[in-house]
Structure formats: structure tokens, C-alpha cells
Amino acid sequence: MDNRAHRYCVIMCGGIGSRFWPYSRAKLPKQFIDFLGTGRTLLQMSYDRICNLIPAENILIITNDRYADLVREQLPGVSEHNILLEPARRNTAPCIAWAAWHIAARDPEASMIVTPADHVITREAEFERSILEGFDFIESNDALLTLGITPVSPETGYGYIQIGEHTVGNISKVKTFTEKPDIELAKVFIATGEFFWNSGIFLWKASVIQDALRRHASDIAMVFDSAPDGTYTDEEAERGFIAEAFPGCLSISIDYSVMERAGNVYVETVTFGWNDLGTWSALYDLSPKNLDRNVTQNCNVLSYNCSGTIFAIRGEKLVVVDGLEDYIVSDADGVLLICPKAREQKIKQMVTDAKLKFGDKYE
Amino acid sequence: MDNRAHRYCVIMCGGIGSRFWPYSRAKLPKQFIDFLGTGRTLLQMSYDRICNLIPAENILIITNDRYADLVREQLPGVSEHNILLEPARRNTAPCIAWAAWHIAARDPEASMIVTPADHVITREAEFERSILEGFDFIESNDALLTLGITPVSPETGYGYIQIGEHTVGNISKVKTFTEKPDIELAKVFIATGEFFWNSGIFLWKASVIQDALRRHASDIAMVFDSAPDGTYTDEEAERGFIAEAFPGCLSISIDYSVMERAGNVYVETVTFGWNDLGTWSALYDLSPKNLDRNVTQNCNVLSYNCSGTIFAIRGEKLVVVDGLEDYIVSDADGVLLICPKAREQKIKQMVTDAKLKFGDKYE
């Protein structure tokens, strides 16, 4: 059976990437940046990757309405009706719910993959193989499938999925979800071989995630079930229902509202060179280094007594630096950040401080 | 006798201030910057200071011709004929010689003060008193007078003048000139009470420095003595002699070519709150500090675990910084410098490296 015509993709790209502030900003977030210097932004790379698997007319982009023009500019091949514009930020559950109702209205037999726009995947052929295995599974089972990345180190910044009973191929039942563990626990997780990183990439039939939302997140499901005729059509924007109803949804993640509560949750363990680019240190680790172990993004650097440092600059600039070890130096759009990599978890607080003291334009 | 009408001032402002790179640049050097945040540039402050002592029509500005527009803009009250534009950089001896010949042609009885444009003087009334004492002395003596600053610490970055036989008031014969001593020697200098910092501010009659140049720097004097009629007049620029002859002068300082060789050299010891702003550390020391002992020039700074650091930014920018102790952070015109204050003597080399590697626009 060829299910290809019923397969859909939803690329979520509404985040603001504040952990890469000031290089990633509310007005130009991470997913819209050519972070790896390849000539394609993270969103464009996510789109290119999925194009081999899903018919172009079945690829939907869901984002905050302030990024509409960025999406149109970066993905000119995506039709206007495949761009869903959220009128408010409400985390992943309302976002995925809207997409599922929208797709189910187009095609009651639809299966779908939901993926963030801002991850890096280096082994594309393996990615394709994994996604096809996932589709095959959810098309023959009423399952909620999440992709679990085979861990390569005891990271404390990720959620972990513990696998239970083996089902088929690379797919198992999920036993537990665990949010960011401390380093000791993370080491134990790795040693057992039972724990995988939660990628935030999901596959399911549209009807199955609708049912799961009705059961486990009924307040959200009720919003989308109550939509008047014509909502999930090409006239959706003109009808105005989403603009009115979406902001009323609870802001909650799909993991917390559905995946951690439902019974039919499965994990496919994968090894396709995944990195969520969640931290400056991750970007540093992933990027090619010069002889001094420095990484440069978009700038010329003249460095003395300086190593382990990442420079990310927007606009033409020469950086001359002496004496920085393991720092982040980022200059973009009126903000210069100089911060040790070891303290990058403080950057979110710095952004808050900057907004409080100097105004929202620094978000 | 009122000599005021015969008194002239020459403000030298042709330097490029490379020790403050990138904040001070070849295209906008230190003397043209409002370095103290007072609303007046160093050149303007030098001009304001001398205006109380010298008739405005007797104040000359000598600078490199590339800075002509900056001078006109910053000192709109100075007439075009009082701006001498050097066609090449040739250190202070040719610069002062030209000014002396020019002034002597206007007024054979002229006395003159020569001063750099980029120093800071905080005690203006004391400055005026000192300059008047100096003029009185050189008008009644055929003397070359230099101002010696009473030292407040054993600086190794300055030249020192040792005083000899006391002459009158605050004026003594000069015994020796010593270039930058090491720290041990500087401490000995201070302890003796005989050594003063060489300020680079001179007073003499135009005819007396002409004679001294003829005797001790005859190759330079010959150039200016050989000028055709009309050279040292309002038609000087049109006549073209300076444009042709000046670049042929030896590049040498007035200290080395004349002051260290002549017999009639005197020093007036002064205490008018002088600082040559020769280093970032000097600027740091002179500037008001915030609670973390940081200094900001022209920017908002949000700092964490950061002290003893100076931030000098051109253009609107928010700087967010964590973990810098005793650094210089300067961003201007396409260059960002991050350098420990303790290594600022390396900045000249960095500029050279930057030009070699990335082009002259970074000078």
C-alpha cells in the first residue's frame, strides 16, 4: 500500500530561541538563521530534509504570526494555505492540536510527523530510513510515536525516555519520561542502555492525536472541536475563529499534556546525528574549530591567548580579542554579549534583566 | 608692557591616537572625540582653555590635511587662514618649524605656546597662571621653555625632565631629559624631587625657536628658510611651497632635535592636573566609575561578575557582560576589541596585524 499521499508534515517554528540571545532574537529567532554557515537556515534545512519524504503540498509550517514574512521569504515554495499563523504563543499542545484538526479536515486518513524547525540532523539517509519506519508503524497501529535519540553522553539538558517492552524493529513501548536529570542520574541512565533523549519529533495519525487530546487535554480539544464549518479550510484565516479562540488555549506542552499520560505511547530509537542546538556550547561543539579551538560565525577574528571561544556576529565586523578562554562573544542588532560558556544558563535571566532595565526592544 | 597682542598659540592635532584603537581611529582620532563625556572634544577643550589667554585671531591649528573638515566642524570660530594643513606626517619638529616660520612672518615679535590637542587638564585657573608665568619668562629671556608636570606616581610611560639651577619663580634650567624609565628608576626619580614629567607643552619666541632650529636641525630650518615670498601669508596654500617641501622634511621630534641639544632650555614646573590620556588605563583612572568599578563611554552596560573594566562603544549598543576583570571592551566602526588592561601595550601590534590581515580600513 502506498500511503505517501496521506502523509503530512508539520514544521513548528514559532520559538524565539532566547538561549542564543543576542544572536537569536525575538525579531529573528534561531530557526531563521543560517547557524551552520551552509547557506541554508535551520528552517530551510528542516524543510529540505522532509521534502524527500512528504509531498510538498502536505508540508505545513506553523509559526507565530509575527514570523509570517520570514517564512514566506525563506520557503517561497510553500503555499499560503500551508502556513498556519498562531495569534499567540501557547507552547506545543495547542499548536499541534490546531495542526491535527486542520490536517484531519483535509484528509481523514492522514498520518503526520511533527518536528521542530531548529534542530540539526547530520545523517540524512538514516533520518529518512527512521521516518519511513515510523510512518509504517503508526499507519498500522493507533500509536503515538516519539523519536528517542541514542545518547552519546550524559547530557543534563535533555529529557529522557525509558524504553519498555520491545514491539517491532526499532520500536518499543515507552516506560517512563524523565525531565532533565542531574549528572549522576544521567550517567546511570546511559549505563543502563534503556534511556534515550526525547527529540520532540512525533509521528501519529491525525485522528489518533485528536482522540488522545480529547481524552488527556479535553479543554484544548474542545476549542478545536467547537470550530464552525469552514475553519479548517483555505478560508480559515478569513473565518477568524483561530484568531479568537487560539489565545484562550492553555499554554502547555504536548509531552506534559498527552505523551506522559496516554497509554499507547511508543518510542522509535534512532541514530541520525541529532543535535537540538539548545545551547551555545552545543553549537560550539558542532562547529568546525580553528587552530586555537575557537569557532567563528560570520566574522573575522584576530585572537591572542584565546581558545575555546565562540564568536557569533551579525553585520560586518572584525573582532580582536586577547585573553578569553571558553567564552561566548556575540554581537547582533545593538547588543554585545560577552559571557563564559560555563555560565550560559544565565543568559535567559540576562535577557529579562536587559528588558526590565532598557526596554522590550532588547528581547 | 602688554604683550598679549604678540602672543600666539599653536594647537597640534595631527596624531591618530592608535593606542585607543578601535575607539580612536585614523579617520576619527582621539583629539576629535568627546572622551570625557563633557559635550566637548579634547580639541575643543584645548581651544577653550587657551582662548582665555590668547587673542582668537592668534590661535593656529596645525593638523594633517585629512582632518581639515573635522577641525572646521569642531572649531567653527577658527578662520581658514589659521588652520595649517600638513601634507604628510613628519612628527613634531617640522610641524613646529612651519608654525614658527608662519607666525614670525606675521609678527616678528611673536611669542608662542605650542600644545598638543589631546591632553586633559583639570585645573584651569592654575593652567592659566602657569602659562602667563611662562610667557612673562620667555618674553624677557631668549629661552626655550618646556612645562614639567609635578609627578604624582612613578609612571614608566612618560619622559622625565631633571631640573638644574633654579632661575626664577617656578622656572629652572633643564639638567637632563630621560626617556621612559623602568619602574625602579622611576621610583628613584620621584624620590629625589628633581624629576618632572615632560608635558610636550612649550613656550618660546618664534625667533628663538627659529634660531634653535637653524642651529640644531639645520636641514629642517633650511627648508623653511628657502620658502619663496608669499609662503607664510594668507596665500600660503595657493603658493604650493608647503605641499611640495614639507614631505621632504626629516620625521623627528622637537624634543630629540632641539630640546635635548640646545643650551637655553628651561623648565617651568607646574601642577595643573595634567593627564596625557596616553592609555586606556589612564582614561579608566580619570573617569567616574560605577559601583562595580567599571567605566562606560557612550553605552549601556549590564554587568555580572565584572569589575575594573572600561567600555567604550560608538553607536547605540547594550553591552551584557559576565566575568571580565580589568578589561578593555571597545566597539567602533566595524571593530570590536576585547583586551585585558594589563596587555594594552600590545594594541599597536594588534592594529598592525589587523591591517596586514584584513586591510587598511581597520587602521
Give a description of the structure:
Two copies of one chain form a homodimer. Chain A is α/β, with parallel strands linked by helices. Chain A has helices at residues 42-51, 68-74, 92-106, 124-140, 183-192, 206-216, 218-225, 236-239, 241-245, 254-259, 280-286, 347-358, and strands at residues 7-12, 59-64, 83-86, 111-116, 120-121, 144-149, 160-168, 171-178, 195-205, 265-270, 274-275, 295-297, 300-304, 310-313, 318-322, 327-332, 335-340. In chain A, helix 3 packs across helix 6, helix 3 packs parallel to helix 7 (218-225) and helix 6 packs across helix 7. The longest helix of chain A is centred in the middle third of the chain and has 17 residues, at 124-140. The interface between A and B is medium-sized, with 32 and 32 residues.
Oligomer: homodimer
List the total number of helices of chain A: 12
- By secondary-structure content and strand pairing, the structural class of chain A works out as alpha/beta
- Write down the secondary-structure element order of chain A: EHEHEHEEHEEEHEHHHHHEEHEEEEEEH
Quote the distance from N terminus to C terminus of chain A.
Answer: 49 Å
Number of distinct beta strands of chain A? 17
- What is the alpha-carbon Rg of chain A in Å? 21 Å
Largest interface: A-B, 32 and 32 residues
Largest sheet of chain A: 5 strands, mixed, barrel
Query: On the 0-100 scale, what is the average pLDDT of chain A?
Result: 95
Uncertain residue ranges of chain A: none
Apparent shape of chain A: globular
Share of β-strand residues of chain A? 25-35%
Q: Numbering strands along the chain, what is their spatial order in the largest sheet of chain A?
A: 6-9-7-8-10
The helicity of chain A comes to: 25-40%
